[in-house]
Structures are given as structure tokens and as C-alpha cells.
Design goal:
Blueprint: E1 2-8, E2 13-19, E3 24-32, E4 40-45, E5 51-54, H1 60-71, E6 87-94, E7 105-106, H2 109-117, H3 126-139, E8 145-149, H4 159-162, H5 168-174, H6 183-197, E9 205-211, E10 215-221, E11 224-228, H7 251-258, H8 263-272, H9 275-280, H10 286-294, H11 298-321, E12 327-331, H12 332-337, H13 339-346, E13 368-369, E14 378-381, H14 386-397
Parallel strand pairs: 1-6, 6-8, 9-12, 12-14
Antiparallel strand pairs: 1-2, 2-3, 3-4, 4-5, 7-8, 9-10, 10-11, 13-14
The chain binds adenosine-5'-diphosphate (ADP).
Length: 399
């Protein structure tokens, strides 16, 4: 069975074609600059060199057609699909399902109405995801489609974790609450951790640290998310590449007054000019900031300190929330690839049963247990695979 997974942004579209009998990616690619001059696709069939084609793409429908052409071998790359008949279904990553869906669903007209109702909650992301779904519905009307939501895994959070200390009416009127994001990733790495440890996930308390350009931490108890660091939006929680993470909520009003800036400009500062970039003044990319810190630049060092201290505090808080801790998992760009970040986060956590093994911590980008054999809490690196979860859910929902 072959399943196409699509992650659609406003001007870009990532895709992977899976063979679900053996669970491996047959092909993957990226379409960029949709609706902008210079549109292109970079398509890679497994085991072959990438093929890049530049061609005008006025909209997402044109982008989907180009992806199909690439998969069928019409752009110079060898075919990954012999014919469209082979394509069993398409799975889509969708950012926000509000409180409407706690699991993945088959997409139909009723679900699309619900996703449109969630646009006010994710005005930047959901419209692009919806465009991708509608484009596939147009181009492949007979192929079943499934939506997999970033928010779904966190729908198991208890009220005490998702209600803010604000007038309750805002929750009722506007859905103001903690939703959390990266759910597919937190689900995948927590359940994979249980597999690797050979313990049923129902018996484990795990803190999962998804640390990329956007970062979030989750408390996963018995296989269910009971708390997470991102909130109503992905701006909350630990500091990120350009996002501030948790700050005093009075600060946006203070900055707006002090700098005489309208709300939209303050929002831009908190989302695009803060975090690693804002503190270091060097870059939003941790590699550049780590190099700056190695050169002795004090603000780069400070940015790394603020980041790792923030992550450490979440681990401690979530250990308290779960009445103990069995494993800490690091994933995504930083979590998988930055031994110094993992070392600083785990430093001084022996009281909690965390003992990192410096040699094992050297690993990058592959599954490993990086704690000492004597460590009560297992510290693990697990590369995330959101696309595989989307493909599995899509297969399951086909019945
Ligand atoms: P996104 O949230 O956009 O999916 P990624 O998960 O790809 O982001 O993570 C990007 C982050 O990972 C960047 O901050 C980058 O610096 C960091 N990163 C990637 N490789 C390394 C590395 N070898 N050392 C340190 N940081 C790394």
C-alpha cells in the first residue's frame, strides 16, 4: 500500500511517499515559492540523486500536479509510482484542530467545515493546510484523505493544565486555553522510547523535548500527554530560535508603550526577533550561537544558558507533575544534534536520577540511550518521524 504524506505551508509543500507494507519512504521532496516567481520542486527518489525542476506554479493545485508528475517519473527522475491507481490515500499534517479532534480523521465536507472554524486559532497555518487539502481534492478526487493534527495528542491534558488564570468567559467565548503543538512528534518519540526500553508505555512517565527552530516540551504519562509547554499559540514555553517563549505577560503592553509600537509590531518582535536571535544578536540557528559562545562572545553564551536553563526547569516541573520520571527524550534539530545542549540541560540533575554519559552523549541524529547504565532515569535521543505517524494513521483510517 502506498500513501502520500503532505505538509503544506503558505508558499511551500513538503511531501513523502511511503510504502506502508514495509514502512519506508519511496520518495520525498519539497516544492518552494508557490505563487511567487522562481517556483521549483526538489524531488528525491530513495537511493537516487535529487532532481530539481524550476517551473511557474501559480497555486497549490499546480504544485500538487507537479508532485504527482514527479512521483510518476515525468520530470526526469525515475518513477516512484507506476500509476495513480497505486496511491491508496493522502495524509495531511494540519496544525490546529482546536478541541474538535483528539485523533486523526478521514477528511470530508463536515471535517473541512470544522477545520475552517479553527482558522482564528491558527490564522497563519490552518489556511495553508486547508489549501493543500483542497488542491488534492481537486487533483485526486477519488483518493481518500486523512488529517493528522499537531494539537490532537495534547487533547488528553486535564483542565488544570490547559485552563489559564484568565476570566473563564474567554475560554467559553473564544476557546482561549492551552492547546500545545508538535503533538505528532511527542506521540512518536514517547511511544518509540517505550519500545526501545522494552516497557509498556502505560507504565512510563516521560518528558519529551522537541527542540528545533520551534521547541516544545511535553509530560507524557502512561502514553498520554498530560501537559506541554506551548500554549494557545506556539509562542509559549521554552525560548526558541526567534520566539521568546514564556515571559511576564505584562511585557507586551510595556514594550508597546515604551517603544511606541502598535500591537502587531510587538507581536512580530516576540515571534521573529526574540529567542536565540534576540539575546545573542548573532543568529536564530543554534549552530551559529554555539560557535559564537565557543569564540567567547558573552551574549551568545548567555543565549545558550537561558535556553538550557529553561529546558531544565520544564523537566523538573513535569517530573513533579507526574510524581516521578522514567525517561527524558531529546528530538528535532537541536535535540538530535547538539550534545552540548543535552549536557547543559542534564547537568546538576543527579538529584532526580539523571546521570548523562558524556561519551554516549556524543551521538548525533540516531537513536541512542545516552545516560549512564546506573542512571535511574534513561536519557534518550530519538529522531522524530512525524511523516511516518501521519502515514500510519492514514493507513489505519482506511480500514
Ligand atoms: P524546525 O523546527 O524548523 O523543523 P529543526 O528541527 O530542523 O527545525 O531544528 C533546527 C535547529 O536545529 C536549528 O536551531 C539548528 O541550529 C539546530 N541544529 C541542527 N543541527 C545542529 C547541530 N549539529 N548542532 C547544533 N544545532 C543543530
Amino acid at each position: 500500500m502506498k500513501i502520500l504524506v503532505i505538509n503544506c505551508g503558505s508558499s511551500s509543500l513538503k511531501y513523502q511517499l511511503f510504502d506502508m507494507d514495509k514502512e519506508y519512504a519511496l520518495a520525498k521532496g519539497l516544492v518552494e515559492r508557490i505563487g511567487i516567481a522562481g517556483s521549483r520542486i526538489k524531488h528525491t527518489k530513495a537511493g537516487e540523486s535529487p532532481v530539481t525542476v524550476e517551473t511557474p506554479l501559480p497555486d497549490h493545485k499546480a504544485a500538487i500536479r507537479l508532485v504527482i508528475d514527479a512521483l510518476l517519473g515525468r520530470n526526469g527522475a525515475p518513477p516512484a509510482l507506476a500509476s495513480l491507481e497505486e496511491l491508496a490515500a493522502v495524509g495531511h499534517r494540519v496544525v490546529h484542530a482546536g478541541e474538535k479532534f483528539a485523533t486523526s480523521v478521514r477528511l470530508d465536507d463536515k471535517v473541512m467545515v470544522a477545520l475552517r472554524e479553527c482558522i482564528p486559532l491558527a490564522p497563519l497555518h490552518n489556511p495553508a493546510n486547508i489549501m493543500g487539502i483542497e488542491a488534492v481534492m481537486d487533483v485526486l478526487p477519488r483518493v481518500p484523505q486523512v488529517g493528522v493534527f499537531d494539537t490532537a495528542f495534547h487533547q488528553t491534558m486535564p483542565e488544570r493544565a490547559f485552563i489559564y488564570g484568565l476570566p473563564y468567559g474567554y475560554y467559553e467565548k473564544y476557546g482561549v486555553r492551552r492547546y500545545g503543538f508538535h503533538g505528532t512528534s511527542h506521540y512518536y518519540v514517547s511511544h518509540r522510547a517505550a519500545e526501545i526500553l522494552g516497557v509498556p508505555v502505560e507504565r512510563l512517565s516521560i518528558v519529551t523535548c522537541h527542540l528545533g527552530n520551534g521547541s516544545s516540551i511535553a509530560a507524557v504519562q502512561g502514553g498520554r500527554s498530560i501537559d506541554t509547554s506551548m500554549g494557545f499559540t506556539p509562542l509559549a514555553g521554552v525560548m526558541m530560535g526567534t520566539r521568546c517563549g514564556d515571559i511576564d505577560p505584562a511585557l507586551p503592553v510595556f514594550i508597546s508603550k515604551a517603544e511606541r509600537l502598535p500591537a502587531a509590531d510587538v507581536d512580530l518582535i516576540l515571534n521573529k526577533k526574540s529567542g536565540l536571535l534576540g539575546i545573542s544578536g548573532v543568529s536564530s540557528d543554534l549552530r551559529d550561537v554555539e560557535e559564537g559562545a565557543d569564540r567567547g562572545e558573552s551574549r551568545a553564551k548567555l543565549a545558550v544558558d537561558v535556553l538550557t536553563y529553561g529546558i531544565k526547569k520544564y523537566i523538573g516541573a513535569y517530573a513533579a507533575a507526574m510524581n516521578g520520571l522514567d525517561a527524558v527524550v531529546f528530538t528535532a534539530g537541536i535535540g538530535e544534534n547538539s550534545p552540548p545542549t543535552r549536557a547543559k540541560v542534564c547537568e546538576g540533575m543527579e538529584f532526580l536520577g539523571i546521570e548523562l554519559d558524556p561519551a554516549k552523549n556524543g551521538v548525533r541524529g540516531k537513536e541512542a540511550i545516552i545516560s549512564k547504565d546506573t542512571s535511574r532515569v534513561k536519557v534518550m535521543v530519538i529522531p522524530t518521524d512525524e511523516e511516518l505517524v501521519i502515514a500510519r494513521d492514514t493507513k489505519r483510517l482506511l480500514g
